[in-house]
Amino acid sequence: MSVALQEMGGGGNMVEYKRATLRDEDAPETPVEGGASPDAVEVGKGVIPVSPGPRPGMTSGTPGSSGLPWRVTCPHLRSISGLCARTMVGFRKRTRHLLGSHTQLELVLAGVSLLLAALLLGCLVALWVQYHRDPSHSTCLTEACIRVAGKILESLDRGVSPCEDFYQFSCGGWIRRNPLPDGRSRWNTFNSLWDQNQAILKHLLENTTFNSSSEAERKTQRFYLSCLQVERIEELGAQPLRDLIDKIGGWNVTGPWDQDNFMEVLKAVAGTYRATPFFTVYISADSKSSNSNVIQVDQSGLFLPSRDYYLNRTANEKVLTAYLDYMEELGMLLGGHPASTREQMQQVLELEIQLANITVPQDQRRDEERIYHKMSIAELQALAPSMDWLEFLSFLLSPLELGDSEPVVVYGMDYLQQVSELINRTEPSVLNNYLIWNLVQKTTSSLDRRFESAQEKLLETLYGTKKSCTPRWQTCISNTDDALGFALGSLFVKATFDRQSKEIAEGMISEIRTAFEEALGQLVWMDEKTRQAAKEKADAIYDMIGFPDFILEPKELDDVYDGYEVSEDSFFQNMLNLYNFSAKVMADQLRKPPSRDQWSMTPQTVNAYYLPTKNEIVFPAGILQAPFYARNHPKALNFGGIGVVMGHELTHAFDDQGREYDKEGNLRPWWQNESLAAFRNHTACMEEQYSQYQVNGEKLNGRQTLGENIADNGGLKAAYNVWCSVRTPESSHEGLVTDPHSPARFRVLGTLANSRDFLRHFGCPVGSPMNSGQLCEVW
Fold it and tell me: pTM of the prediction?
């Protein structure tokens, strides 16, 4: 079984856009410019599925691979929600990027509105078209139709004209009826479905008659039960992490430390325990040679969701103060002295501010052709000489033998050169404090309640969320999903998945692909040679639906997790074992070719994604359920739900980043110059359009959100794609600076304002808010 490491952190990663996921789940799930969690791996038949730190599907308060869930992004994947998949080794589900930019209220409203708008627009337009095409005006009166029609009517705000504000028209009623739950910064259908899936998994894992023939499934139950051992976790307190720090060589914040061991501490923190100080290293398909895996290095190292939090110090004074308070509190919980802990943590924060200064913003990293640099380890050593790269990479990928000529793909040459200079001029004690702080971030969510309380205070400032009311069992389901997601998926699929759904979904994808290709044929700005290549790429898109077959084969599933030791007695040790295991899995992939059947999301995940290096779209079993999809729903409803997702993901193959990859998944120029120039003109129109939208007085970044806006607009043409959402002001701000998706409101308004079908069916006159008279169309 082969596994390609999927590192899900650090919005700064070049890989950040490579896996386009469907939704931007909770605030914690937004991409972070400086940190990447290297614990996640793609899983296919015969592959080891280890998940990365915190990732897709978390609610406020979910621990992440870095301790706080906000540091996770989805490298290589592009999802419709913006959320990373649940294949993570660290912690993930409660809140992926704890420090994301969404507050509780914003996040909650945003999610729920999102799906309602998609369903509503899909249904309204589809039913409108059906009404005018069907002379008899027959009405669907099945129980499913009546139930959904009632929900749609409840969601409407009929006091608003759809041509004035379709978002408010379609979602206003729902927003009034659904205040944010306590402890949440956003709420949506994705969250609701994940809660539903969690309840199913809880029942399966706590069943007193649990007696699986699979050792991997038994490990899953042991891991879950170890997380529930609250009394034992409280009894141990901070001691497990204190012992680990002593083992590594000490921490100047809490006591004696080895002053001459920078490389040894770096190897332990970034290698053994998979934290990402200064940079991140992972194994993944070579973008320019997608049939082979290669070592990849990118920028990382920031704790807050975006460099803007560090650099705009006046506007973010409250956040920076809350972060420093958090750092100080954790330092003291681990044995630091009040007089010196804050001073030393202030130095660590100043180092992170210097890292933020050299970190390249997301919107300047969207052209992978420009940021892709392949070199040897020897050349990397010359570029960034402050550390011994051959020693570090050999340790990280042990027992593989590496030499100076080993190829490495670097996605931040200027950053690595500057970070090397920064390391050379920084005091050894500050470097040590920063390295251990990265380890502390990653591991504290496995400790006692005091650490969780400290985290909640930071989240309140970042997102406007109050104390989380998430029950312990939900946190433990999320952690189990991160650690043993495919073994957990085996239980989920056997208990819930309707196998016929796969065949129906494949038929829907075929219809949407056909609709997209028909639209290609009507583009007047594309030359015939590029058009034919684009059609061939669309034809070649590979779809995976439901789950990987190996999870239902006990021996194959056991082989995937062979070597991962899980005890019911120590949750903290189970997490450390997981980091070690994921590092070994990563090393095992370098000399193996990528497998097209590898999965980057677990079956129970409520999301979907497009992966350009494989030219594939993936729809897990978790999203193939109501309200996205149901066998007894009319076709219009399913196309308004899961059809939206399918159209969105397929269009990612042709957004401003996906279009750089050919049908084989290789990064190469395959467009004719005149068509490329025309494409850029059309996308410039869309970038300008979205840059005019504002949230709480802040303008959207049309460049940063361009790929998702293209997918929303292109997906709408193929499946009437639309979104709704509500967020708190703090969460909205974080989203504007970190999220590749536009805010939910403008995913609705911007997309429909560019839809000729919408304007025609709803009769919106030129000059109305929904019809400016200028349409920005790409696909």
Answer: 0.82
